[in-house]
Amino acid sequence: MALQNIGAANSDDAFYRYKMPKMITKIEGRGNGIKTNVVNMVDIAKALARPASYTTKYFGCELGAQSKFDEKTGTSHVNGAHDTTKLAGLLENFIKKYVQCYGCGNPETEIIITKNQMIQLKCAACGFMSDVDMRDKLTTFIIKNPPEVKKGSKDKKAMRRAEKERQKEGELADEEQKKVKKEVKKKGSSSSKDGTAKSTSSKKKASGSDEDRTSPTHSQIDEKEEAPDEDDDDDVQWLTDTSLDAARQRIQEQLSAVTADMVMLSTDEPEKKKKTVSNGNGGSHNGNSMHYGTLVGEVKANLKKGVGANELLSHLAALPAPAQEKMSALVEALFDGIDKGFAKEADKKKNYFAAAVAEEGSQLLLLHAIEEFSCKSTSNALKEVALVLKAFYDADVLEEEHIVQWYQKGLKGDNKNSKIWKNAQPFIDWLQSAESETEEE
C-alpha cells in the first residue's frame, strides 16, 4: 500500500513518521445514481485517528452532495462523479481543520467537546488546545456524533486525568469570571439608577450642562420612548401647529358650530382614507389592529397549551395585525425569558420558524424580528446573533440571499451603528467567502 506524509507541508520530509495511505477512488453507477466510492477511507481514517464518518460527511458538506458511510461494510460513498485529486484536496483541508495542531502542526491530536458545545483539538506533543471554527457545517455533525473514547491505554488514562484537571481549573476560572461579571452588573445597575436620577433632576432644572445630555442610559431611553410628548417640546417653539387637532381648534374658534361641523366633515374624509390605507399596508397601529402586547400574550397562551407550529401560525394569521408585528410577536414569545443559549433555543424551535417563512418575503420579516429582539433584549442575545443566523441557515429556514440583503440594508439604514451588525459580520464573511470558493471551483 502506497503511503504519503500527513499534511501537505510535510510532503518532502523523507523522515516524517506520521503517514497515511494514498486515496483510492472508484466511480460506481450511472446517470442520476452515479457515486464516488472512496475505497480505502477506513485505512485513511485510522491513520488520522478520526472516524471515517467525519471525513465522508466533510466531503458531502464541501461538495454540496449527499454522502454516506456504512459502518457495517466500511464503504464510503459521495453522490456524483468526483476526481481523486479533488477529494484529496478536500481531505487536506479536513486535516488542517480537524487533525493538525494549530500550534505545532503535529497530527497527534484528540477531539474534545466542551460543556459549551465547542470543539477543541488537544495536542499530545505540545499540549496546545486548538479552537475549531464553529462556523463550519461539519461541527454540528461532530457534536451530534462525538468520537468514541478508547479504553485500556495508559497514555489515554493519563490524558483523561490531565483533561479532568484542566476542566476543573477551567470551571474554577469560569466561576471566578461569573463572580466578577455579577459584581460588574451590580455596579452597572447602581450607576444606571444614579444616571436616571440625574437625568430626571436635570430635566427639572431650567439650564442643564452638556455632559448630562450626552450618552443616555438604557433606562433614560425607555423613559423618553414612554413619554415623548411631555418634555421634548420645552425647548422648541412652533410658529404654526399644522396638526388636525390644532386645525379643529382654530376652526371652532373662528366659525360658528354649524359651519365648523361642515368644514370638519371635509377634513375627516381624507383622514379616514389615510387610516384605511395605512391599515391595508400593515404598517400602522390605528384602526382595528390588535395591540402588540396583546398579540405577544396571545402567542404565549397558545404555546402553553402545546399548540403545534402549523396550528399556531394559522391562528396568528387570523389575528388583526401587520405581518411584521406578527413575526416580532412570534420571536418574542418563543424566546421569552432566555438569557443564555439563544442559539440553542433557536435550533430547538426551528420548526415554528420554518413554517413561519413559508410565504415569499417572510424571511426578511424574520430577520427584522431577530434584529428587534436582539437589540432590546439582553447583551447575551446580541452576542449570539451570528450563531442564531447559522442555526437558521443550517436548518434551511433562512437563505443566504436574504441574510446578505438584510445585513447590507442594515449597514446603510438609520440603525447602522448598532452592535448587531458587528456581531453578525463573521457569519456574513463566512457566507461570502464560501460563495466565492464555490464560484472558483
Automatic annotation (TrEMBL):
Residues 189-200 have a biased composition (Low complexity). Residues 147-236, 268-288 are annotated as: Disordered. Residues 179-188 have a biased composition (Basic residues). GO terms for biological process: formation of cytoplasmic translation initiation complex. Keywords: GTP-binding, Initiation factor, Nucleotide-binding, Protein biosynthesis. GO terms for cellular component: cytosol. Residues 223-236 have a biased composition (Acidic residues). One of its GO terms (molecular function) is eukaryotic initiation factor eIF2 binding. Residues 147-178 have a biased composition (Basic and acidic residues). Catalyzes the hydrolysis of GTP bound to the 40S ribosomal initiation complex (40S.mRNA.Met-tRNA[F].eIF-2.GTP) with the subsequent joining of a 60S ribosomal subunit resulting in the release of eIF-2 and the guanine nucleotide. The subsequent joining of a 60S ribosomal subunit results in the formation of a functional 80S initiation complex (80S.mRNA.Met-tRNA[F]). This is Eukaryotic translation initiation factor 5.
